[in-house]
Amino acid sequence: MIRSENAPGWYSRRIVAKFAGMKKKNAPVLPDLLAPGLDVVFCGTAPGAVSAQRKQYYAHPQNKFWRALHDAGLTPRLLQPSEYETLLTYRIGLTDIAKHVSGMDSQLPRGSLGKDAIADLRARIGKYKPRILAFTSLTGGRKLAGSGADFGRQSITIGQTEVWILPSPSPAAHWNWQKNEKVWRALAQEVRKLR
């Protein structure tokens, strides 16, 4: 295995995969950022094109995710997408429903957000047991909570994990941001109660 003295293990694995000349079959577009003891896990539908290209969550320059986290008081400073692994320090995790495809929801292959993907998400959340699972889009949240679900806390849970649906920070969903941004602040208030 190729290793650098100062590089963490995940970095050396990426180098090996690159030199092998192929991407590992069924490898996720972005790795989950999950661990036991998290206060909240944010869940997207699938990484967008820019995020997939850069291998960073919410990496589009116009995506409001990182600003929303900071403005809501969930991080002490404005983080950059390249710093996404730092979120574990603040007991925040990241995942997506569709782990093996990327693009806008309308571009995803049929079934990417279907029953199997939701069952896999339930299993990941059940394993790590965060206090809150927060979907970063109405589309994603409705895949779990049902087509009538709206923004905010949901009546459905995964074990003891509360489920929330937030307005999408994506630039493609700008139409609902200003009207519903307050839901991010309400979620942050709940997270602060856990700390």
Summarize it.
Helix content is 33%, strand content 13%. The chain is globular. The N terminus is likely disordered.
Could you characterize what this model shows?
The chain has 195 residues and is α/β, with parallel strands linked by helices. The chain is 33% helix and 13% strand. The protein has 2 domains: 1-28, no CATH class; 31-194, Uracil-DNA Glycosylase, subunit E (3-Layer(aba) Sandwich). It has helices spanning 9-20, 49-54, 65-71, 115-128, 138-145, 177-180, 182-194, and strands at 40-44, 92-96, 132-135, 152-158, 161-165. It has a 5-stranded mixed beta sheet. A hairpin with a 2-residue loop joins strand 4 and strand 5.
* CATH superfamily descriptor of the largest domain: Uracil-DNA glycosylase-like domain
Specify the CATH class of the largest domain: Alpha Beta
CATH fold title of the largest domain: Uracil-DNA Glycosylase, subunit E
Strand order of the largest sheet: 2-1-3-5-4
The assigned structural class equals alpha/beta
- Domain unit count: 2
- Strand tally: 5
Shape: globular
Low-confidence stretches: 1-23
The residue fraction in helices comes out at 25-40%
Q: What value does the Rg take, in angstroms?
A: 16 Å
Order of helices and strands: HEHHEHEHEEHH
Return the CATH architecture of the largest domain.
3-Layer(aba) Sandwich
| CA distance, first residue to last residue | 40 Å
User: What do the pLDDT scores average to?
Assistant: 88
Strand content: 5-15%
Largest sheet: 5 strands, mixed
Number of helices: 7
